[in-house]
Write a structure and sequence with these properties.
alpha+beta, Alpha-Beta Plaits, SH3 type barrels, 14 strands
């Protein structure tokens, strides 16, 4: 009886801490097909807004392997790789549909523009439209990541800086 050839399947690899991209690069160099879902993240560093590409699942990446034709042994000793994720001693495959959904969802996120997004410049007057400070007016100071802003609020005869979700303000 001949063995039935199964199509390549996706598996999950656990990477060494903060070495996701290194593991992906080294596995790709060995002709393995890898997928590391990434997303753009905004952060404030030293007072400046920085956009960087980060792993959606830090410490993990997907690899497509053929059970018969691929040599799985070099994977363990690849720089950046910790281990192939297993249950018991068997590697667990990930459904192709899950990988397709991840790719589709991330592609849609890149093409979407935020609904009702407003452009703010330092000094713009804003009104808080939800939460504890609802209906108070403030002055926009800066962005605090992708979804928060820093405002200057006159409260109890003192100026207070406050970080609030950008969705809770409107430009006046």
């Amino acid at each position: 009886m001949a063995l039935q050839h199964l199509p390549p399947r996706w598996y999950l690899i656990q990477c060494k801490p903060r070495q996701d991209s290194r593991a992906e690069e080294n596995l790709t160099r060995q002709a393995f097909k890898c997928y590391r879902p990434t997303q753009q993240v905004e952060r404030i560093q030293r007072g400046r807004r920085i956009t960087s590409l980060e792993s959606l699942f830090p410490g993990y990446l997907f690899i497509q392997l053929d059970q018969i034709n691929d040599n799985w042994h070099p994977i363990r000793s690849t720089r950046g790789v910790n281990q192939l994720v297993t249950f018991g001693k068997q590697p667990i495959s990930v459904a192709d549909e899950l990988i397709d959904q991840l790719k589709h969802r991330l592609q849609n996120q890149l093409s979407e523009t935020p609904k009702g997004s407003i452009t703010l410049e330092p000094g713009d007057r804003v009104r808080i439209n939800s939460g504890t400070y609802k209906e108070l007016e403030a002055i926009f100071l800066s962005h605090d990541g992708a979804e928060r802003i820093v405002i200057l609020l006159q409260l109890l005869h003192r100026e207070q800086t406050l970080s609030v979700p950008i969705s809770s303000i409107e430009k006046t």
